[in-house]
Design brief:
74% of the residues lie in helices and 0% in strands. With 130 residues, the protein is mainly α. The longest helix is centred in the middle third of the chain and has 30 residues. The protein is flat and about 55 Å long.
């Protein structure tokens, strides 16, 4: 049974952004084998979804009457799932020996490159002003 299904049955809200914040807050804490298993299940579920979305997208692009909004929705979904997989894998990997250490924050995974560019500009302007 997928973790998402278990959460729905338990009445827990599913909010990827709150999951990302919680993952960052607890990233340095040791993880049990069960927690690692849950994370790997989430990664596998997301990977299967990405695979299926890419197949559906390829079929849709081949159709003559493709609505560009649908294509963009597929692309956005694949991007969000890939970001989630990266975040979960990194946070889970921190508990494993031999996994490369990273200090990436959730926004490093979840926000688009343009967001980071503006953040860098703000930081540069603040440093120049001081």
């Amino acid at each position: 049974m997928a973790v998402e299904t278990v959460r729905r049955e338990c009445g827990e809200p599913i909010n990827p952004s709150s999951e990302a914040a919680a993952a960052h807050a607890h990233a340095s804490q040791p993880q049990s084998a069960e927690q690692v298993g849950i994370a790997l299940e989430l990664i596998a579920d997301a990977a299967r979804t990405i695979e299926r979305l890419s197949i559906l997208l390829a079929v849709q692009v081949g159709e003559a009457e493709t609505d560009l909004r649908d294509t963009q929705a597929f692309i956005n979904s694949v991007e969000a799932l890939a970001q989630r997989v990266g975040l979960i894998a990194e946070r889970t990997g921190r508990a494993l020996k031999g996994f490369p250490n990273s200090d990436r924050a959730p926004e490093d995974w979840m926000m688009p490159p343009v967001w980071h560019r503006y953040a860098d500009e703000l930081e540069a302007n603040a440093q120049a002003a001081s």
